[in-house]
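Async update (no meeting this week)

Hi team, since we skipped the sync, here's where things stand on the single-chain job. The sequence we agreed to prioritize is pasted below, unchanged from the tracker. I ran it this morning and attached the output directly underneath so nobody has to dig for it. Comments welcome in thread, and please keep replies under the output.
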Amino acid sequence: MSTHANRERLLLADLLEGAGPDAPTLCEGWKTRDLAAHVVVRERRADAAGGLLIKPLAGRLERVQREFAAKPYDELIRLIRTGPPRMSPFALKQIDEASNTVEFYVHAEDVRRAQPDFTPRELDPVFSDALWSRLEKMARVLGRRSPVGLVLRRPNGQTAVAHRGTPVVTATAGPGELVLFVYGRQSAADVELDGDKDAVARVLDAQLGL
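Output:
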């Protein structure tokens, strides 16, 4: 049975394959090869992937990721399409869906929106609701470094508080754009920002995300 995470995984693999190994991405300092290596290491090398969250392990993560980035690009794409090994936590459908739906959506947009011929992608309502559900749960974590209060609002009026404080900036957009915004892709996300001019500028420059 297809899941949101699996669909986004295959889309990401297709986008990476189509762009080639040396195309730009929205991830600062990373080309598509580096992004592909990141995805593979995150799922297949738990001994190194801890460096994503634990600073003392970051050096090991960088070394392992460089090793994977040196592999043939088509091998990296194949490993992404194949998915995690059976012993990986990500092999469990529930964990895969909870952890990878947003991860793969964001990285697919990292590839798409870095290309000169980028065109907006229309998300179906069910997928938009799935992204919003994840965003509601993670908003406080993703927005914790906002220098001002930050509220996320869907066009239907639903809101999530990403950071408490004053003054307050309200970001209004569909769930897909709001996800990109609080994952640190502010300049690439199509959102409407309402608030004090200086506060808006500070949010746009903030290091949002994980």
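Quick observations from my side:
The longest strand covers residues 149-153.
DSSP finds nine helices and four strands in the chain.
Reply here if anything looks off.
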